[in-house]
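Deviations from the work plan: none for this task. Representative record:
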Amino acid sequence: MISKLSSLFKPASEKNSESDWATYYKQQTTQCADAELRRFYSSGLPDADTPLSQLEFVALDFETTGLNVRRDRIVSIGLVPFTLSRIRPAAGDYWLVDPSVSLSKASVTIHHITDSEVANAPALDTVLPELLQALAGRIVVVHYRQIERNFLDAAVMALRGEHCLFPLIDTMAIEARWARQGMLANMKRTLGLREDSIRLADSRQRYGLPDYSSHHAKVDAMATAELFQAQVARHYNEDTRLSDLWL
Amino acid sequence: MEAEVREIREHLGRYPPFDRLSEQLLDKVASSVEISYFRAGSLILSYKQSIDSLYYIRSGAVEVYRHNNELYNRLGEGDIFGHLGLLHNHHVRYPASAIEDTLIYLIPDAVFQQLCDEDENFADFVELSGSRLKTTVEQSHRENDMMVTRVRSLIGRLPVTIEESATVEQAAQLMTEQHVSAILLLAAANENNSLAFSDNEGLHWRITGILTDQDFRVRVLAQGGSAQTALSEIKQGELISVQSDKTVYEAMLAMLRNNVQHLPVMHRRRPVGIVQLADIVRYETHNSLYLVSNIFHQSNVKGLVRLMPEVRAAFIRLVDEGATSQMTGSALSTIGRSLTRRLLELAHDELGPPPVPYCLMVNGSMARDDQSITTDQDNALVLSDDFDPQQHDAYFAELASRMSDGLAACGYPYCTGGIMATNPKWRQPLSVWKNYFEEWITRPDPERLLHSSIFFDLDAAYGEESYVEVLQDLIVTRASQNKRFLGALARNALGRTPPLGFFRTFVMEKDGKHKNSINLKRRGTAPMVDVIRVHALAAGSRAQNSFERLDDIDRSAMLPAGQVDKLRYALEFIAMVRIRHQAYNLRIEKEADNNIDPENVSDSERHNLKDAFQVLSNAQKYLRFHYPMPD
């Protein structure tokens, strides 16, 4: 997946290349055939060296029918806007979308969304304009970017024939950086001990964040926003630059 | 409702004051919440910064300070702060810092104001710090009829009265005509007599006694007395009565204490009725009254011991029926006093009458009327000054050991500190006792006072009550003047601290079989009682009961406004948790103890407990500052 993206477009590689994101946005603003995507790109990006305290973020989470981006589809989308000082669930949004494929048993047991519930849900195509509007001009924060980045890009490619890529902050990547590096982690590895889990719930525990009972895209988006605030409070500060964290 | 709102709502709804909001208001709050994370050690609110939200702790721990940086409160999950700022010009009054990693739910000011407007309980809660405690305690009072129902509401009719110069026969005829079982005796009185009241015809009378059906049997017929005996000859000594505006509970206590079944009810000096045991039993279904009369019917120690399961059952019923700690404490003290008294009576039956008059003095919880179900015996003998050790002490030593052994058999363990009449040091004539108290007060020494402070809760349980009253008078006149004595007493009152740790968590017992629990007596009620005793003695109060002492302290206006109420609620709350815990112990057939595991109490009870311990902690700080030990 990554190789495919990077062959298409360099900035999506895991290298942190701020100038490339700006270039990509500029290019999309003029070249993109889809009006809604053009509008999204034309709302622009904050400067790569903007301090975190001055940014508007939006936590984003998808529930999907599975992990395979070619076969599986998005079934629900949750988003919660926030800043370093406030998370605003009420200003967020949540959509069930019709994946147009039957929901596998496994995915139903994870997110409790059933065929009948999505039967009346709108198609992703209908929801897309609202989704793009909610993301425009904000820095998107996710936990495990491979899901949100790849599924959205694939879906938009299928629907509109265009890429939909933007810089992301990945709280799982941040967690991997801090929880899986350093002397202690190395010692654990050497001793053959299990590494610390960097799943959302386990990561949250390390910051004294409470458990949430539901597996739900908006709850997970809220949980991701909280985790990001906690990570910044512990490992970074409000003057940390965007370019240090985006991918 | 969306899932994240449900998550928020579910948490809010478990904690006061949100737990009592209507569904609709709770939805409103939950859907308005914003969230913010604070790392341990970071400042959440700084003094005078503007504030636009109520702060609710979703997880973590927070310390709140006065603006002189003195610690004001430690808060945990489910607690709120910032409300004082919202109520006062939207500027922070008490700065706050996270002492653990903390997740805060922010409730916007507009929603906060709406809650204050639309929910009285919420408004009460946030209006005063400490109000949480108040709400809980008052609610449990309200739930208890006996505490609020006035005794006058039990009166069915005006009392039947007769002049005490009339005969037994005349009284019996009148009572039969009127279908009553008790009659009040009158004597003509001078209009200026402080006890006099006037009847419809303008004549002045005073009440001199009460006679019941039972008295005719016991005091006349059984003695071979004549129907022509004058009533004044068979009446009992002192008349016990109750004012009409007292509560049913207080009337019950008066009956229990005095072992009487009929009580004249007075409006000032005028009798307005007679309340009977049966009237109160309608309100009070448990049997502590019968228990007391049962105690007096036992003819040996074995019989008394057999009553003890009933005492425990009565205690459990009292707690189940929502009795306050004060009620329960009084009932148990009354039972304890009755047992003590009966044991002395039984001893007299065998040993003969005492060679010189004496008073059995009780100390500690029995004197304070706040006994629990597990309590040591603390007592002493105050003997007449005619006491001659050579001649008389053998009698009193035997009397004391019979009483003490009897109490031990009934489940009141011997006092480990030896505060018992069996100890020759505490079996002394009144003059020696006066010297003891003089010495304690005028040459105070914290070491020595530690062991004698228990004597500063003292009451007569049997015999010449005036002896103990003399000692009480002595304390009242000397103690309040003596700064050094109060300082020493205050220092001792600081020895046992409430179980609050630096991290707002409970500090558990570290070892022994009660590891990881909190001793509610040692860490709660006992130090609270100590603190109250210091203030009470400083205020010149004669009361022994902590709540009555607080009333006196309140009247003396020696503490800042609101302090007395806080102490009262905190004491009541800790004591209530303690007696509920003990009732629970007994119900599951465990030995009742004072040790609770905080994990086993409900969330809101745990929060209230922390509040209550905080009140104690603040009260101790106040004591340290205001009663310094002079050099």
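The mean pLDDT of chain B is 85.
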